[in-house]
């Protein structure tokens, strides 16, 4: 009995020893994971003292400024946020890289220590499908910092497991992935020639007036807002919260047919559009022109640029680089040096001095072309690659969607609604 008892005691001790070793290993591994997560979090978020921190006593709307104030969220009471300035009526704080505004009222401004983001990424934006809570931690049980409005695209700076992260008043805010949709990007339409269907001789780079009217009618009926090149740039840089129903309408070449047929439709709906001008062609005619659909291509004159400025924002499309090399079939700009391209762009921009964007002729460009565009002061380069304008690519390689008679109305709807995908 003693031997059996001794053996039994030994076995029990051995089991206890093995279990304790396992427990220690699990604890060490767990601590290692926590430590690693802690180090990662430490690199992303730190504590910092801010001289001016706002804490509102009651929930307050947050606005962005455009033509008018637009409410984009509500700041929760007792949630401190760093402010960057103020005027007589509003405190200013940052949402992403954008200045947002909180009306002055019952609030405290003091020096305070806050958690703040030390490293952000050029990431993306998210769609809010309903009013959406932003939490102070990656935990649905944590306090809510603010509530975002429904129907907007908000810039995010980071993604962690089940959460997207934005910054508000220098603090990180956590959005549950289940409560929002990732933003594919802004739809950017590009047109060239617009003609009545009976006058069309080709469908290449041409859309019928009837199809164009149907498309613009759809945008109006579904309450789309047309954006400017400046607004696109701010969206790409995280400096603008954009409505879900937003689109850019662009035209290339400055063709007279777009004055004759597209301009009245756009003006009817109160839409704005970009018109990329080949400025060496604006002197081919003087003053008012009689449009002739049967003759050679006709282009805007300098007088047209003044007359149509209530609808069109005039942009760059080179001075005289809009031609193809007869041997290679590629744009002649590909054979030019950076200095030659820069000289051409400067001549182009003399006629369109407010230009923010450049459409590459035939969509052809090189690193030298991009470098020349930057030096010329252009902020956006439009390609002919089909897709959405988003933060995944350079601002000088922005995608568009060529809308011609070859494409169906259903394809147009899928694109502007953000439902189109490419291989």
From TrEMBL:
Output this protein's name: Peptidoglycan/xylan/chitin deacetylase (PgdA/CDA1 family)
- Is this entry keyworded DNA damage? no
User: What keyword terms does UniProt attach to this protein?
Assistant: Membrane, Signal, Transmembrane, Transmembrane helix
PROSITE patterns in the record: NODB
* Annotated InterPro entries: Glyco_hydro/deAcase_b/a-brl (IPR011330), NODB_dom (IPR002509), Polysacch_Deacetylase (IPR051398)
TM spans (from-to): 7-28
Looking up Pfam families in the UniProt record yields: Polysacc_deac_1
User: What Gene3D superfamilies is this protein classified in?
Assistant: Glycoside hydrolase/deacetylase
The NodB homology domain, residue ranges:
245-423
Does the entry feature the keyword Phosphoprotein, yes or no? no
Its lineage reads: Bacteria, Bacillati, Bacillota, Bacilli, Bacillales
Domain of life here? Bacteria
């Amino acid at each position: 009995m003693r031997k059996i008892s001794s053996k039994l005691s030994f076995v029990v001790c051995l089991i206890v020893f093995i279990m304790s070793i396992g427990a220690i290993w699990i604890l060490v591994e767990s601590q290692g994971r926590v430590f690693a997560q802690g180090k990662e979090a430490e690199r992303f978020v730190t504590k910092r003292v801010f001289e001016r921190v706002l804490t509102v006593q009651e929930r307050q709307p947050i606005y962005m400024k455009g033509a008018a104030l637009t409410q984009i969220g509500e700041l929760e009471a007792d949630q401190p946020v760093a402010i960057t300035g103020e005027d007589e009526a509003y405190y200013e704080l940052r949402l992403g890289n954008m200045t947002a505004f909180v009306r002055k009222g019952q609030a405290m401004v003091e020096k305070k220590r806050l958690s703040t983001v030390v490293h952000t990424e050029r990431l993306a934006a998210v769609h809010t499908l309903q009013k959406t809570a932003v939490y102070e931690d990656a935990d649905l049980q944590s306090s809510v910092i603010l509530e975002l409005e429904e129907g907007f695209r908000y810039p995010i700076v980071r993604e962690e497991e089940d959460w997207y992260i934005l910054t508000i008043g220098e603090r990180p805010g956590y959005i549950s992935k289940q409560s929002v949709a990732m933003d594919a990007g802004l739809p950017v339409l590009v047109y060239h020639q617009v003609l009545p269907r009976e006058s069309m001789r080709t469908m290449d780079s041409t859309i019928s007036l009837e199809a164009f009217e149907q498309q613009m009618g759809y945008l109006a009926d579904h309450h789309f807002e047309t954006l400017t090149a400046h607004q696109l740039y701010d969206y790409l840089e995280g400096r603008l919260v954009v409505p879900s129903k937003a689109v850019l309408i662009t035209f290339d070449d400055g063709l007279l047919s777009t004055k004759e047929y597209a301009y009245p439709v756009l003006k009817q709906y109160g839409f704005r559009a970009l018109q990329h001008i080949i400025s060496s062609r604006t002197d081919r005619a003087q003053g008012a022109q009689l449009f002739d659909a049967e003759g050679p291509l006709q282009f805007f004159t300098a007088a047209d640029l003044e007359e149509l400025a209530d609808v069109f924002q005039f942009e760059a499309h080179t001075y005289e680089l809009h031609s193809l090399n007869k041997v290679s079939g590629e744009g002649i700009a590909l054979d030019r040096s950076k200095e030659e391209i820069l000289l051409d762009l400067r001549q182009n921009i003399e006629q369109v001095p407010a230009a923010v964007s450049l459409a590459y002729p035939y969509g052809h460009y090189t690193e030298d072309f991009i470098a020349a565009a930057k030096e010329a002061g252009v902020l956006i380069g439009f390609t002919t690659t089909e897709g959405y304008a988003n933060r995944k690519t350079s601002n000088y390689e922005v995608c568009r969607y060529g809308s011609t008679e070859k494409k169906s109305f259903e394809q147009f709807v899928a694109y502007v609604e953000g439902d189109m995908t490419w291989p």
